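Narrative of accomplishments. A recurring question from our advisory board has been how the design workflow behaves on a single, concrete structure rather than in aggregate. To address it, we present the structure tokens for one chain from the evaluation set, followed by the sequence designed for it. No filtering or post-editing was applied between the two.
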């Protein structure tokens, strides 16, 4: 499977506007970016994306969309959109609605599972 990475940078903490950081990048391995963690887009890996030495924080969970190629319909390809914020601006951002348990964007019924029940269920399934 091939992955097309598209990096975006938010203009401000509202997450209403952003722009693309550099050109799209084709990769063979699925990226393992984690929401809220800092990243540096090194030139040897990604080319001239962003400012040299700039640290970015993953400001949204990855957005994944299938890519359809009529020339190769059997080959699976995914577009992965990566949304960053500058580290120095990250403190002004609210938690992304997609990860907030109190979100009003369709996930308001999200309830995290208590750890105790998960642990008990795992023990019972081994017996």
């Amino acid at each position: 499977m091939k992955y097309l990475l598209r990096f975006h940078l938010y203009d401000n903490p509202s997450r209403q506007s952003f722009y693309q950081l550099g050109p799209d990048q084709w990769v063979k391995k699925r990226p393992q970016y984690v929401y809220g963690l800092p990243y540096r887009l090194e030139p040897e890996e990604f080319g001239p994306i962003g400012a040299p030495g700039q640290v970015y924080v993953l400001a949204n969970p990855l957005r994944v969309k299938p890519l359809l190629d009529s020339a190769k319909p059997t080959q699976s390809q995914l577009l992965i959109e990566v949304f960053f914020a500058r580290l120095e601006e990250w403190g002004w951002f609210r938690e992304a609605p997609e990860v907030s348990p109190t979100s009003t964007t369709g996930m308001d019924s999200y309830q995290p599972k208590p750890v105790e029940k998960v642990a008990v269920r795992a023990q019972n399934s081994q017996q």
